[in-house]
Amino acid sequence: MRATDWDIKKLAILRALRDRGTVTATAQALLMTPSAVSQQLTNLARQLGVPLLEAHGRRVRLTDAAHLVLRHAEAVFAQLERADAELDAYLQGESGEVRVAAFSTAVPALVVPAVRALRTAHPGIAVRVREAEAAEAYELLSAGDVDLALSLAAHAPTARDPKFTRVPLLADPLDVALPAGHPLAGAAGPRLAELAGEHWIFGGSGPWSEITRAACEAAGFVPEQAHSAAGWTAILAMVEAGMGIALVPRMAAAGREGVVMCALGEDRPVRHVVAAVRSGSEEAPAVSRVLEALRDAATER
């Protein structure tokens, strides 16, 4: 086997199969037919001289040899990203378009201030924003449809994932939203445990439901869910009406006359916000400048 047998396009298909799990899902993601995916992987196995797939029920799974190949291939993909970054620097300098996928509260809190700063400091850099929660954002990033993804650290790929480089941005405190007449509305730093008997408002499922439940359970109680809502406008309207209370990330808090945002005390939970790029692409001048602007926006909060 020679280095020339390592076909980058076929290796990308193999990596997509590892990430997507099935030939059908891989074909859909790569805009190929399932038979074309299978044929390309059969050809790659023949070129490399090792079996890459094995039957597993009605599906296929990667062999140990395939995982070994991909461990080395990730370094190749990262180096190609660096090559693209250097070419961009050579051709465009600090200009170009950076596509950003970000969760809803990060857009006004971090992305918009970063874009405003870039317009002044680096007007040659254009930012295109796409709202997306973590699962979709990382699919887009992996597929090359965006250049940078913002998510909560709890829902980001681990730091050990070689496909991505993670950049910590912000530890965002969670405050409790109380109706204006609540007995603790004027309290200084109450403990979350003091609110154990309250009616709570949070989504029925999804990241915010998980965060609320986990924070309350860490404080020693299971929150009684009185109402279910996913949008902050609806949640804060119900808090204002005295229908319950809610944990709200400081990034998402919006002034509302009948709602008091109360900073919690020593058991105050936080959520960590991270940016991620494809490994190697952080060296591209435009991507590097956007990351810098996002870090600055996070520092100023």
From TrEMBL:
Keywords assigned by UniProt, alphabetized: DNA-binding, Transcription, Transcription regulation
PANTHER family membership: LYSR SUBSTRATE-BINDING, TRANSCRIPTIONAL DUAL REGULATOR HCAR-RELATED
PROSITE patterns: HTH_LYSR
CDD domains from the UniProt entry: PBP2_LTTR_like_6
Family: Belongs to the LysR transcriptional regulatory family.
Any Pfam family the entry gives: LysR_substrate
Gene3D superfamilies per record: Periplasmic binding protein-like II, Winged helix-like DNA-binding domain superfamily/Winged helix DNA-binding domain
Species this chain originates from: Streptomyces aureus
Superkingdom of origin: Bacteria
Residues covered by the HTH lysR-type domain: 6-63
UniProt name for this protein: LysR family transcriptional regulator
